[in-house]
Amino acid sequence: MNLRHPAHHALSIAVFTLSTALVLTGCGSATGSDGSGKADPSEVTLVVGTPNKAGLHRALLASGEDENTPYKIKYADFDSTQPLTEALRAGRVDIAAGGETGVLFAMANKAEIKVLAATRERRLGGSAILVREGSPIRGLAQLKGKTIALPYYTHQHYQLAVALKQAGLSWDDVKVVNLDTAAGSAALNGKHADAFVVWDPNTAVAQTQQHARVLKPLKPVIDPPGMLYAPSAALDDPSKKAALRDLTRRIIRANAWVNEHPEAWAKSISRLSGIPLAAAGLQVSRSRSVYEPVGKPTVAAWQKEADYFKGLGQIPSAPVVKDSVQGDFAPVVEKAAAAVSDAGRGGR
Questions:
Q1: Residue 36, exposed/middle/buried by CB under 10 A (0-12, 13-18, 19+)?
Q2: With 0-12 CB in 10 A as exposed, 13-18 as middle and 19+ as buried, what is 78?
Q3: Euclidean distance between CA atoms 134 and 221, whole angstroms
Q4: How many helices (H) and strands (E) are present in the chain, helices listed first?
Q5: Tens-of-pLDDT digits for all 348 residues of the chain?
Q6: What does pTM read for this prediction?
Q7: Contact, 120 vs 330, CB < 8 A?
Q8: Are 296 and 81 in contact (CB under 8 A)?
C-alpha cells in the first residue's frame, strides 16, 4: 500500500491564532530558567500548544487552572498535531496534548519528545468520516474511487487507513487529499471532496451548520490513547521540569472540571473559540476524556501504530516508543488522576 502525500514541508502549514503569533515572535525559544540548575519556576514561561479549537488552551482558561501559577503561561494554537510538533521541535512549545499519530511521526523523524501521560476518550467522541447531506454514499465500500479530504498525520489518518482496510479497500482505491480542517470542510461543501475525515469540534460544526452526515464514527474502528507530551529539552531544565510537573496536575484538574461542568464547558468553547453553541454542546455531549499514567498496554498500542506506518513506508523506521516515555511523571499523573476521581465521588 502506498500512501500518496505532498512533500513534507507542504504538510507543515499551521493555522495560528493571534496568541500563537505573539508567542512565536515574542518568547524566542520559550526559556525561563536562570541556568543555575536549581528548580525555580518563577523564572519560567511555559508555552502550551493546542492542536484544535477546544483543547488545553480553552480547558485551562475555562477551569481557572491557569491562574495563580508560580510561572507564566502562554498559548500557541494550531490546526492539527503535525505543525504543533514542528513548533515543539523548534523549542517554541513546551507542552501539548492531543492525538498520538503526529507525535509518532515526529519521533520517527528524530524529534526529541517525551510522553508525560496518556489520554483516553470514554465516549464515542467526534472522530468521523463525513459526507454531504443527500450524498448517495451509505457505506465505506462506496468510497472506492472517491475523493477524501483528510488532515494528514493525525489520529484520524490512522483511523481512516484501518477503516478502509476493514471495508476491503486499499489506500490506492481512494484519492486522499491532504487538507487542513478549514480547507477540508470547504472541499466537502463545495463538492470537491466526497468525504471529509475530521474530529470535534469540526465534526460538530459540520453536522450542525452544514448538515453533514456521519458515514462512519471512527472510535469503534481503532482508538489508541492520545498523549500529553513535552520536548526533552524542557525536561532537562530543572526549573521547567518543576513547572511542567505543576502544570500537568493543573491540566488533569482542568480536564476533570470539563467533565463535571458540561454546560459551562460548552458555553466556554463557544465563547473562547467562536463556535456556535449548538456545535459546542454536541461535542461536549459525546466526550469524556481522562488522563492516566502511560502503561505497557498503551505503549504497545502506540508501538503497533508506529510499526503500521513503517510497514506502509511512511516513516523511515519505527521509533521505540517505550524509550520516549517520561517514567518519573507516572506518579505525578497517577496521584493527580486519583485526586480528581476522589473529588468526583465526593471525596477529599
A1: exposed
A2: buried
A3: 24
A4: 13, 11
A5: 444 333 333 333 333 333 333 333 333 334 444 444 578 889 999 999 999 999 999 999 999 999 999 999 999 999 999 999 999 999 999 999 999 999 999 999 999 999 999 999 999 999 999 999 999 999 999 999 999 999 999 999 999 999 999 999 999 999 999 999 999 999 999 999 999 999 999 999 999 999 999 999 999 999 999 999 999 999 999 999 999 999 999 999 999 999 999 999 999 999 999 999 999 999 999 999 999 999 999 999 999 999 999 998 889 999 999 999 999 999 999 999 999 987 766 543
A6: 0.88
A7: no
A8: no
- What separation in angstroms does the CA of 246 have from each of 23, 69, 75, 133? 21, 9, 17, 46
Q: Please give the domain boundaries of the chain with CATH numbers for all domains.
A: 8-122+225-344 (3.40.190.10), 128-217 (3.40.190.10)
Alpha helices by DSSP H, 15-133: 18-26, 56-63, 81-89, 101-108
CB atoms under 10 Å from CB of 56, counted, come to: 26
Q: Which of 319, 325, 297, 324 is nearest to 306 (CA)?
A: 319
DSSP 204-226: HHHHHHS--EEEEESTTT----E
Residue type for position 60: L
DSSP symbol at 325: B
Residue type, 237: D
| CA-wise closest residue to 177 among 154, 195, 199, 159 | 195
Q: Which residues on neighbouring strands pair with residue 150, listed in sequence order?
A: 178
Report how far residue 74's alpha carbon sits from residue 93's, in angstroms, rounded to the nearest whole number: 9
Which strands, in side-by-side order, build the sheet including 147-150?
Answer: 175-178, 147-150, 195-198, 128-131, 213-217
Rounded to the nearest 5 degrees, what angle is found at the Cα of 13, between the Cα atoms of 11 and 16?
150
Contact 146, 174 (CB under 8 A): yes
CA distance 24 to 304: 34
